[in-house]
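ugh finaly. both done.
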Amino acid sequence: MNLLLISDTHVPKRARDLPAPVWAEVDRADVVVHAGDWVDEETLDRLEARAKRLIAVYGNNDGPALRRRLPEVARATLDGVRLAVVHETGPAQGRESRCSRAFPDTDVLVFGHSHIPWDTTTETGLRLLNPGSPTDRRRQPHHTYMTARITDHTLTSVELHPLPHP
């Protein structure tokens, strides 16, 4: 199972559209995961129409229309891997222990908000993934997104992809 992980797209405020390589990954992915801060409903509509399956949440920059359509926390079991998605996890310091307590029955937590890519595993085995942002790099060297695979009930091949500067 191929996964595409994105967050903090901020369309149309930070970009007019998702970058072409991200749309290409949408077409390849079995599941697209979006960890919030869409800003516009059109991107949600387009991803819902194009993705084979979309698991998504709203973020702090998403207004009432997006909040009516999306949950604050999304959960799914994908080939035995228990996935949760949330926009904010709080400060980096203490994130692992805080998330382990908040998501005890989760194998992988995808989050956003900071625009800073993150990939760690907690003492309890919870994998924390932040794909950064494909449209708003802030102080990061690149715009980014992540891909991953689930093989034999295990998350594998997690890869951070930098995008060329527009």
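ok and the 2nd:
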Amino acid sequence: MADSTNVLHLEYPILPLLMQRRSPRAYTPQPVPAAVLQQVFTAASSAASCFGEQPWRYLVGSRASSPEAYDDILGSMGEFNQVWAKSAPVLAVSIAKLTFSHDENPNAWARHDVGQATATLAIQATELSLQVHQMAGFSVDKIRASFNIPAGYEPVAVFTLGYPGNLESLPAPLQEKETAPRVRKPLAEFMFEGAWPTLETERYDAATV
């Protein structure tokens, strides 16, 4: 069973895996077996995409089997993320192919589809008692240079992958973030049936993801 720490409590019942999925920062150094890693990334291939293009690409760095790639991905991250991400056994980069393969026209939905694939991957990881933490805090230029990514492909996000570790391994401020209540906007703030709303303000609850 997946980690049940800090499970979401929502207005309406949804799949338990969706409530369990979160973005922790504490990892055990336990390696992720190659077969399990392949299973997680295979899940991404099941996601929907415009014209069935499947524009997602993933660069993967495993501390156990591809340490140079691991170090390059880690080095692309901001210092704040490196502090905790270096404990994860696997690091990865999601990348979008920006043109359609069938006609080479721009694919305006590529990043959207990459997000769908990575979300699907994260749910599969949760089912396998793994955890994923996606980040925007990285240098696109460093990733592009380290891996010689050609034109027409755009790094979208980096993420950690591994098994849950002890909360006590994190600095105190990050421990607080891990245990802070997880809050989501109520349905009325993002589901608008029939017309655009007349809400005067939009609330944002800063909580762990």
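summary for the 2nd one i guess: The longest helix spans residues 110-127.
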